[in-house]
Amino acid sequence: MTVTCPDCGESFEDGTQFCDLCGTELPQPEPTIAGVDEGKVEAGKDEEEAVAQPKPVPAPAGARLIVTRGAELGREYNLAAGENEIGRWDEEEGYTPHIDLGPQDTEGYVHRRHAIIRLDAGQWWLEHLQQPPSNPTMIRGRGERLEVGSPVALEHGDEIVVGRVILKFVLDE
Q1: How far is it, in rounded angstroms, from Cα 113 to Cα 18?
Q2: Contact present, 115 and 127 (Cβ < 8 Å)
Q3: Does the pTM exceed 0.90?
Q4: Which CATH number, 3.20.20.70, 2.60.200.20, 1.10.3720.10, 3.10.450.710, labels domain 63-171?
Q5: CA–CA gap between residue 19 and residue 4 (Å, rounded)
Q6: Which residues of 47-85 are buried (b: 16+ CB within 10 A; e: fewer)?
Q7: What is the pLDDT of residues 49-79, one digit of tens each?
Q8: In angstroms, rounded to a whole number, what is the distance separating the alpha carbons of residues 91 and 87?
Q9: DSSP3 helix / strand / coil % (the chain, rounded to 5)
């Protein structure tokens, strides 16, 4: 079975987590258990023995980042529920972030592990990951650089500065 990247259309074998071309997280098939309805426990079994398929918790709205300053203006990166690490690919470490800004950052200002956007309790958060000295992560128009360990809530339309790349945060409704 193959999985297709929702951003660039490249196909990969089932089980691959990220697109090798654009870094987008690939959709994964949902596991199924024969004879068990979603969110229900099989009748007549103790809770410990019961087999259940939990329902996924939906995100309040999809979100994405759109490049407004970088090599590929208009390029979009879909955000997944949970954590989305922003950085650049590193062949030596074998590391690929969820959102690879290497192609956007022709001058090398984006760190391998630069920042993270996470969905937590229905709110999207942005956090800088590098200790100074470092190239900044900022929300344009809000002032200073983000500090490590101090996440900032994101709002629809925020412009995020990662090194010298600028991304617009968009909530899909």
Answers
A1: 16
A2: yes
A3: no
A4: 2.60.200.20
A5: 9
A6: eeeeeeeeeeeebeeebebebeebeeeebbbbbbbeebb
A7: 444 444 444 445 689 999 999 999 999 999 9
A8: 13
A9: 0, 35, 65
